[in-house]
Amino acid sequence: MSERAMDQDRLPDATPLKTPRAAALAGIVFSVLLIAALVMLRLATPADPRVVGSWLADPARRAAVVTALNFIPFAGIAFLWFIGVVRDRIGRREDRFFATVFLGSGLLFVAMLFVAAALAGGAIAEAGAAHAGSSGRSILALGRNATSILVNIYAIRMAAVFTLTTVTIARRTGIVSRWLTFSGLAVALILLIGTNISVWVELLFPAWILALSIDILVTGARRPITPHG
Q: pTM for this structure?
């Protein structure tokens, strides 16, 4: 055995990374930012995407929209940390199939959210530069329609899959309170088939994540289910 190999054998085992304390608050940060962004967008813009009207020229409404869109990247970053917190909470009980769907749906949700925010910001900026003329109206209508489809049809469905997978994992591992699993099933079902009921349905996802995050934080998000070997 070489001297280098002997030195490596004498090295202590690597210390596993621990979830930072701040990461336990990631789900709460995500929920608050996303709820604030969605509410500001709904209140500042008309329901009909074809309506340009005075809201585009209103500095207060434009500032609210810009602020809401600026919340989205930070909400997405916090959501990625939240995914890490849940996986750390699961520990060695993680199932590969559900872990893949859980992670994939979460990443797709964040990606679609970012794309929707970029489309909305670009459409508003271009429509404002066109001075709300016929070209500006067309650009804004196209941008809002594309954003609405991306969020309400695709991103929300991915949020439903993420919620359903999280509920399944939580039920099998017992990492959260039982009432959250039942409410999560209801939220996932509504997100899958009820997006046409109201534009406010999309708030159910961050609201449920908020409740889940508080539950994880209270019960000790950093405590693994099984000891690390």
A: 0.79
Identify whether 228 is part of a domain. no
Q: How far apart are CA 42 and CA 200, in angstroms?
A: 9
Collapse the DSSP code of 19 into the 3-class scheme (helix H, G, I; strand E, B; otherwise coil) and give the result.
Answer: coil
Q: Is residue 195 part of a domain?
A: yes
Q: Write out pLDDT tens, residues 57-70.
A: 777 888 888 899 99
Task: Give the domain extent around 83.
Answer: 24-219
In a domain, 2, yes or no: no
